[in-house]
Amino acid sequence: MIDELKIKARELLKNKQVDLIIGYQRASDGVLAMPCFVDREEDVDKLIWDVYCVYNLANYLKDYAGQKIGIIAKPCDVRSIVVLLQENQLRRENVYIIGVECSGVIDEKRLRLGAKDIQESATFGVKCKSCKSSTPSICDYLFKDKEKKGKISEDKDEYESVRKLEVRSSLERLKFWEEEFSRCIRCYACRQVCPMCYCPKCVADQAMPAWFSKGANLKGNLSWNLIRAIHLGGRCIDCGECERVCPVGIPLRELNKKIEKDIKELFKYEAGANVEQKPLLASFDKDDPGDWIK
Fold first, then answer.
1. N or C: the chain end with fewer CB closer than 10 Å?
2. 172 falls in which pLDDT band (50, 70, 90)?
3. What is the number of other CB atoms lying within 10 angstroms of the CB of residue 105?
4. 201: CB partners within 8 A, 6+ apart
5. Is the pLDDT of residue 86 over 70?
């Protein structure tokens, strides 16, 4: 599969179909993977693909607007691309999607804690266990997993952890999130790694008016994290990157999954599922529930 990928990448560059290919290369530790940017045929051999290719590379597409870019993308990464296309942040003709079948990627944090066998399901990301498809919904070229490692996803309620929070009282939920957000150091790593955060000027950086305290205090932390979660409503594709990069381990994915669950139940809408579909907040249906307005 890797050889086939390199051949395709070299062909795209040689034929000038793309100016740049965004993919993965081996990190300096010889184990993990890191983003790789290839614009010359002789550098194609750097490219890799395996269970260590965790990063959502769609985040980098925003930096190359107007250029023809090839990107190696997992199914969850492709959902990010779909949302960016829906929101007119990309032009489809400028993005060549090199789709890869994916049976799951490792959880870097669990690996660092000493997991011995990467094939053990416990070492794969939680997001992978609720992933519905190993094949990208759209792509220009698909690399199939010839090894067929088997299904990593589990047949169970993907919102199980969310439901455990929902049964708590509102005060208990507030206390839970206040305790979690009290650890936030306002590094904004969650924002930087998110493909959906592309505002020219983030609300967190505005000074006139200042929407909330910029210091790492509970009031400001709560405002920042809740505003960001609301901005991702109907847009988050559950790539889990925000939680992966959080240096203090705040369960940001739980908050995003709660909003995802509510949107799916209320509006029958799933982010990144259909490139032909309008974004949730750009569409109107007279049958949409309106009780929340009251």
1. C
2. very high
3. 24
4. none
5. yes
Distance CA 99, CA 271 (A): 19
As a dihedral over the C-alpha atoms of residue 34, residue 238, residue 80, residue 293, rounded to 10 degrees, the angle is -150
Residue 121: the pLDDT is 47
Tokens of 93: 């003709």
Nearest alpha carbon to residue 50 among 84, 23, 68: 23
The whole-model pTM stands at 0.89
Tell how strand 33-38 and strand 69-73 pair up: unpaired
Nearest to 228 by CA among 193, 183, 268: 193
Per the CB < 8 A criterion, the answer to whether 39 and 13 are in contact is yes
By residue count, the chain amounts to 294
Q: 67: how many CB neighbours lie within 10 A of its CB?
A: 12
Torsion angle, CA of 151/152/157/162, rounded to 10 degrees? -160
Rounded CA separation 273/79 (Å): 6
Whole-angstrom Cα Rg for the chain = 20
Residue 114 has a pLDDT of 54
